[in-house]
Amino acid sequence: MPTAEATAAVLERYEAVIGVEVHCQLKTASKMFCSCSTAYDGARPNSHTCPVCLGLPGALPVMNKRAVELVMATGAAIGAQTPAATRWDRKNYFYPDLPKGYQISQYDLPLASAGRLTFDTSEGPFTVQITRAHLEEDTAKLVHGEGPNGERLSLVDFNRSGVPLMEIVTEPDIRTAEQARRYGEELQLLLRTVGASDADMERGQMRVEANVSLRPRGTEAFGTRVEVKNMNSFRSVERAVAFEIERQAALLDAGETLRMETRGWADDRGETYHMRSKETSDDYRYFPEPDLPPLRVDAAWLAEIRADLGELPAARRVRYEEALGLSAYDAAVLVADADAGRLFEATLAAAPGLDAKPVANWVTGDYLRLRNAAAEPVSVDPAQLARLVALVGEGTINRSSGRDVLDAHAATGEAVDAIVARLGLRQISDAGALGSVVDEVLAANPAAVADFRAGKGQAIGFLIGQVMKATKGQANAAVATAAIRERLGADGGGK
Ligand SMILES: [Zn+2]
């Protein structure tokens, strides 16, 4: 397995040219051209089928308008253009998972073209140009197994056949494995925000393929392209692309020529493997689909979809950083993690005027720590979190007690004020009440007092520790420090 350092060395000699193709299942209730339900997860094979999605002769497709709208919304979100009129095309090829012998797709008039997506990487922001996004139908699923007599057989499950699928293709703009991963992550976030797809890679709702080639630095011509597929996580995308860059560089260094091929990613072995050769580009003999009318996209329809888009991830990060003053890290976490983002927004909504920064700290720090460690879903009431942030902010309880309160609230749902009272966590901030404790501590520790007076500033740390001990950790440290300094005289030693 190549290391990141090795890839960096390779990338000094070669430039990687990477394009990414994503297929994602659209979030519609019914299939693309029939009324069969798309909720087939866990269902009996071939239970969600009809003559249309089984490809029976004479069955006529009817377009799912919602699927078209989800592609239009995705197009609008990536700043793409949508043509005033488009149509459906047949992509002809034979495979057992495609009963009609063709897939209904879009060829030269995709619903979205010329978009872009910008995201952060460890080397700064990066923009990928998106060539196109079009709509098509998913294929059936082949299940390979063993028959009753031990014979090998392949079965076809048509439940997935005809599910609306969006294909999104980038320009070959990507140069590193990290950029490929980050593109996938940002696209997933966008698809979820727009509501186009749940885009769960492990469930096959989002499938990522990378086309990888190398060329010597400083040259223009593209090298031989290898398609890599079967990556089921973004981490796999990054590892597979890094591996492929290394593998191709080693072959080129040895004076060998690469062949055009499709390779799969074996996650357990950490390497790509040959799947099939691609001697020539496929000829799908596209032609317009005669069973479906052309599709008109009028300006009012498109405007309506644009108006419904809501706040996109990039705009939300900018708002968090610029209007709310959050760090880039907190903004990125809150936008990427839908659950954390919801809690953050709901907490601010529950307490207008509450400073957003400590709320963000509590959510991205303590809340996520709790949630990620818990086996069961963790429930934090936004109004209670707002109360907790306020109590810590005004010094009623200290930060570390606050953490205990959050844990207790998440475990039982008990109100924050009740927990503070029950556990006696209220800090002693009253100068009078703390003053008598300070007097006792000073009287009991003459050596430390003498040290402080002799200029040993660190002695005050010991004295504060004694005050904390005497109050069982409930003293407000700032008030206690001020009280000690006042009694020992402001000029009485180290500051
Ligand atoms: Zn059907």
Q: Give the fraction of residues assigned to helices.
A: 40-55%
The helix/strand class is: alpha+beta
What is the alpha-carbon Rg in Å? 31 Å
Question: What ranges have pLDDT less than 50 throughout 5 or more consecutive residues?
Answer: 491-495
How many structural domains?
A: 3
Shape: elongated
Q: Roughly what fraction of the amino acids lie in strands? A: 15-25%
Strand count, sense and barrel status of the largest sheet are: 8 strands, mixed
Summarize the structure.
The protein is an alpha+beta fold. The chain has helices at 4-13, 65-77, 177-194, 234-253, 299-307, 313-323, 328-336, 338-350, 356-373, 382-393, 399-412, 416-423, 431-444, 446-453, 459-470, 477-488; strands at residues 14-25, 85-86, 89-92, 102-105, 112-121, 124-137, 141-146, 152-157, 164-170, 206-216, 226-231, 261-266, 271-277, 287-288, 295-296. The strands form 4 sheets. An 8-stranded mixed beta sheet has the order 5-6-9-1-10-11-12-13.
Written overview of the protein:
This protein has 16 helices and 15 strands. It folds into three domains: 4-299, no CATH class; 317-423, no CATH class; 431-488, Arc Repressor Mutant, subunit A. The chain has an eight-stranded mixed sheet. Strands 4-3-14 form a three-stranded antiparallel sheet, with no helix packed on it. The protein is 41% helix and 20% strand. The chain is α+β, with helices and mostly antiparallel strands and 495 residues long. The protein has helices spanning 4-13, 65-77, 177-194, 234-253, 299-307, 313-323, 328-336, 338-350, 356-373, 382-393, 399-412, 416-423, 431-444, 446-453, 459-470, 477-488, and strands at residues 14-25, 85-86, 89-92, 102-105, 112-121, 124-137, 141-146, 152-157, 164-170, 206-216, 226-231, 261-266, 271-277, 287-288, 295-296. Helix 7 crosses helix 9 (356-373) and helix 10 packs antiparallel against helix 11. The model is unreliable at 491-495 (pLDDT under 50). It is elongated, with a radius of gyration of 31 Å. Residues 31, 34, 36, 49-50, 52-53, 162 line the site of zinc ion. Zinc ion (ZN) binds at residues 31, 34, 36, 49-50, 52-53, 162.
